[in-house]
Every structure is written in structure tokens, then in C-alpha cells.
């Protein structure tokens, strides 16, 4: 419920730091709000192969489709394109020049963008922390609809 209260407040669901702390799990908070990185091969969504949408764990904004997910072997969920609203920012942290991926709606840190995925249609690798995402399984047709089609045919 807290989630929806935050969303109603404005277009951008910007919360205060203590509000985020209450809303998120410690791991989500560390990644999304403190730009942390989860250890590789530990994320809950790494091996998820179901059809659906990956949404921001902070604000629920749809970000990546399962159709763009691929196994990069890096230990983090990887996508070759973004479906939702993201922001890219130069990141010079840790002595490297990288491109940070941020959720446009809530400003949460998602991961980094690389261009080393030659096996994909775009060559891009959106390297995303599982902790920054929630998975929404694609809805299957309802029983009623199947039945109706049956009766008609
Ligand atoms: Zn977000």
C-alpha cells in the first residue's frame, strides 16, 4: 500500500531518504539509493526465463522485457535493450569510465550499460542488479475467454 501512496504524490516518485529506507529491503536500498552492486551470480532474477516485464523495484515503472533478456555469463541479469524510461549518466567511479543506468521515474540506480554483447541484435548489454528489479509475469488468457471461443467455434 505504501507504494501507491508514494506514486500518487506526484509524477516523479521522489521520496526522502528515510522513506526509501522504510519502503525498500536493505539490499534494494543499497543498490537503488546508494548505487551499490550485488555480488555476481546471487540475484534472484539472474536465471529467470519466464515471459513478462521487469519493473523497477523502487517505483514499479516497467523497464525491461523478458524478450530482451539474454545470458551474458557475467552473473547479472542482462538485457540488450530497454523497454521503459531510463536515464544514462557518465559514471567515473571506481577508476573506470562507465555508463550508469538510472530509473527515470524514481532516480534509482539500476546498473551499467556496456557495448560488448556482439551476440545480441543491438550489441548492448544493460547489466542490471536483480535487487533493482521486480518481475511481473505476463498474464495468461483467462479461462472464460477460452471457453467463449470454444462455444462460438
Ligand atoms: Zn524507479
Overview of the molecule:
The chain has one domain (2-152): Metal Binding Protein, Guanine Nucleotide Exchange Factor, Chain A. With 153 residues, the chain is of the alpha+beta class. Helix content is 20%, strand content 26%. The relative contact order is 0.20. The chain has helices at residues 2-8, 17-23, 26-32, 143-152, and strands spanning 52-56, 62-65, 69-70, 78-79, 86-91, 98-103, 109-114, 125-128, 133-137. The longest helix has 10 residues, at 143-152. It starts with a helix and ends with a helix. The strands form two sheets. A six-stranded antiparallel β-sheet has the order 3-4-8-7-6-5, with no helix packed on it. It has a three-stranded antiparallel β-sheet with strand order 2-1-9, with no helix packed on it. The chain contains four helices and nine strands, in the order αααβββββββββα. Strand 5 and strand 6 form a beta hairpin. Zinc ion (ZN) binds at residues 56, 58-59, 61, 103, 105-106, 108.
Amino acid at each position: 500500500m505504501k507504494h501507491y501512496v508514494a506514486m500518487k504524490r506526484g509524477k516523479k516518485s521522489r521520496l526522502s531518504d528515510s522513506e526509501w529506507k522504510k519502503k525498500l529491503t536493505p539490499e534494494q536500498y543499497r543498490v537503488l539509493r546508494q548505487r551499490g552492486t550485488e555480488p555476481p551470480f546471487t540475484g534472484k532474477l539472474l536465471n529467470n526465463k519466464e515471459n513478462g516485464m521487469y519493473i523497477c523495484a523502487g517505483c514499479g515503472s516497467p523497464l525491461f522485457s523478458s524478450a530482451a533478456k539474454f545470458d551474458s555469463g557475467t552473473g547479472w541479469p542482462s538485457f540488450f535493450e530497454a523497454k521503459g524510461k531510463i536515464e544514462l549518466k557518465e559514471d567515473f567511479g571506481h577508476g573506470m569510465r562507465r555508463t550508469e543506468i538510472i530509473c527515470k521515474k524514481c532516480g534509482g540506480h539500476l546498473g551499467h550499460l556496456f557495448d560488448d554483447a556482439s551476440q545480441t541484435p543491438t550489441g548492448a548489454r544493460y547489466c542490471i542488479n536483480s535487487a533493482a528489479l521486480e518481475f511481473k509475469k505476463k498474464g495468461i488468457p483467462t479461462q472464460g475467454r477460452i471457453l467463449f471461443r470454444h462455444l462460438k467455434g
